[in-house]
Amino acid sequence: MGSLPVIVGVDGSPDSERALRWAADAARARSAPLRVVHVWPYATAERAAAGERGGDPVLADLRDRPYLADLSDVEFRGLSGLADNQLPALGAEGQLLVLGSRGRGGFTSLLLGSNGLACAARSASPVVVVPRPDRAGTRQGPDGEAVPPAVRRVTLGVDASSDEPAAIGFAVAEAARRGARLLVVSGYTWPMLLPPAFEYAAVYEATQEEYEDALGVQLVDALAPHRARHPEVEVTVQLRAEDAAGQLVAASVASDLVVVARHRRRLPIGPRLGSVAHAVLLHAVCPVAVVPETTDEDAADAPADDGDSAA
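User: That's the sequence. What structure does it adopt?
Assistant: Structure tokens below.
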């Protein structure tokens, strides 16, 4: 088909099965290939290769899933190594990397597994983490699985004072693809907290209303080119002097997807996930997409796509 695949990591757990269903729907909506990957934690390269040929019991168990039947391009791949190293690297090969919130290993009481955190922090492509249906606030059906909201909605968390075009573009395109409304949530701190040396700054002379208006103008300008590309998307903006993570978690109860940006790398030791993205991954009721915001230097190494080319 010519487009990058949607990649999903599986390990035979119920969480990875939910991720596979979500990834299949995403591949179908994008007319993209689907790549299903299982990482053998202690396998030889020969054993992983045998898994690709059908010898991997995890992959073999998934090949006949009915919800994969109408997808024309599905690849099953076994890899050897540590999942928290192998899975983030796969982001460079796909347009989207999908994971369940927990796998087979680790402590079952944890809200998010190490693989999800590693991928969200390091993947070159957007990462979607599909949560368990037992989180507080989740509407469950008779089968115990999460029930989607009655009105389709994508929620975008954005910092009005920052430049986050990749996350904005991804969210607007995803809302268009789903025929969903877009709720844009932005929080800010008031009064402004600045070091004493900057107490003379003009921002202190502004009222909260003036400051919020200025942020609102920045937000409208940031959204404008993406709204022009998808004028059919109904957009609502929620700009409040409240904790952004709390607003997004609350909004996730009535959302199909929450989209947040992964902050640009500010330190040489690696990428920064950000406190808002981290909190939303831990507590959101619906799937969460973490979108990397790349610098010009990083752009050559990371596929930047707001979803239009794959639609």
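The CA atoms of residues 249 and 280 lie 6 Å apart.
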